Amino acid sequence: MKFRGKIIDVACLNHFTRVITTISKLTKTCVLRLTPDNLFFILSEKVANGGVSMWCELAQANFFDEFQMEGVSEDDNEICLEVAPENLARALKTVQNAKALKVKLTKKHCPCLTFAADLPTLSRASYARLRRQYLPPSAQTLKNVVDRMKNLSNFLVLEANMNGEMNLKIDTDLVSVTTHFKDLGNPPWGDDGSQKDCEVLAQVRLDVRRLQQFLTGQQVNPTKALCNLVHHRLVHLILLHEDVSLQYFIPAVA
User: Fold this and answer.
1) In this structure, are residues 167 and 179 in contact, taking their beta carbons and an 8 Å threshold?
2) Which of 96, 140, 152, 230 could form a disulfide with 135 if both were Cys (CB 3.0 to 4.6 A apart)?
3) 95 shares a domain with 60
4) What is the pTM assigned to this prediction?
5) pLDDT (0 to 100) of residue 133
6) What is the DSSP string of 58-103?
7) Which of 126, 151, 170 is the last residue of a domain?
């Protein structure tokens, strides 16, 4: 197996760093799957134990100026590695002002990803600081609400309907709190959309820490964010950027 990639564009390197940093906030380990066209970061925990799932897909052409790989065989041309995203994020942050970054698969005691940076000769102080991009206002509002609800209960109920309404609810012996969101957009439901009762609320009870973890960690700066609910089963969160698709699954708790 062989892999070698090179990023020259500074904006692409910074964007790649933000994606990896977001993933590092969501999981300690995951599987990195390399194919000739894409990179996938995959997490699949045991749902029976309250585990979450994640699927992040990156088109390599949108980040890498050079990308070469050889899988196990021509019929199985892919490489899978278990990685610690936090380690990747640390490596990338130390080279964020690099003129170019090379990533390659090496083997020491075990297969490793090696990062080699071509740093500028000028001092780092002469370069503008990277402007960090945060959650858009609507998502920031949602994060603030979840942060406050976490202090009241370990669990919350997320419910939404096809009429653009979403509620966050906490109900304990001591307090009941509901935050209402209205006039949210709804993606097309397909040919049978007219047959759906737009007022019916789908509802999922969640571990509040799982949702807070997702909202706190994301730095993808999406152009669109989607939330799908499977009644009493799971919440499917999607962040879409021009060249990044990040999906996160949070199972319901009893």
Assistant:
1) yes
2) 140
3) yes
4) 0.72
5) 34
6) EEGGGT-SEEEEE-SSSTT--EEEEE-HHHHHHHHHTTTT-SEEEE
7) 126
